[in-house]
Amino acid sequence: IITARFRCNARHITIVQCYSPTEDASDDIKDDYYNALTSLLTKSKRGDIKILMGDFKAKLGPNNYGLEPIMGRHGVGTRSNNGDRLADLCQAFQLVIGGTVFPHKEVHKYTWTSPNGHTRNQIDYLCI
To answer: SUPFAM superfamilies from the xrefs (predicted)?
Structure first.
C-alpha cells in the first residue's frame, strides 16, 4: 500500500495505490490488509478527493443490490469474498467503483488474463 497527497488550488487529492492479498489468503491476512486501508482512508483529510486504486483480486459481478450508490451493474463474474470486502470498504467511504458503472464490451472489462489465455477476470479497480 502506498499513498500520495497532492495539494491543488481548489481541493487536495489523496491517492491510495494497493496490491491486495489473494482470494486464498487467510481471513486474518485479509482483515489486516483491509484494516490498514480503512485506517489510511480515515486519516485522509476530510475535504480531500479520495482515489483508491489497485489490484484488489476482487470479483464484483453485476449484482449491485443495496450497493447502487457505489457500483453499477456492469461488473464481471460472480462476487467473491474479496469483492465483498472491497464493496464494504467503498460503501463505508462513499467511493464509486469504476469499471462497473457504464456498459462496455466484455473484452474491454477484463483486467487480468491467465498465462494460458483461457481465464479472464476483472480484478483491478479505480474507486473515487
So the answer is: DNase I-like (SSF56219)
How many residues make up the chain in this entry? 128
Specify the pTM: 0.92
Q: Are 82 and 23 in contact (CB under 8 A)?
A: yes
Residue of 93, 88, 67, 63 lying closest to 78 (CA atoms) = 63
- 19-38, pLDDT tens digit by residue? 999 999 999 999 999 999 99
Task: Output the domain CATH number for residue 23.
Answer: 3.60.10.10
Residues 20, 23: Cα–Cα separation, whole Å: 9
Q: How many domains does the chain have?
A: 1
Type and span of the H or E element at 110: none
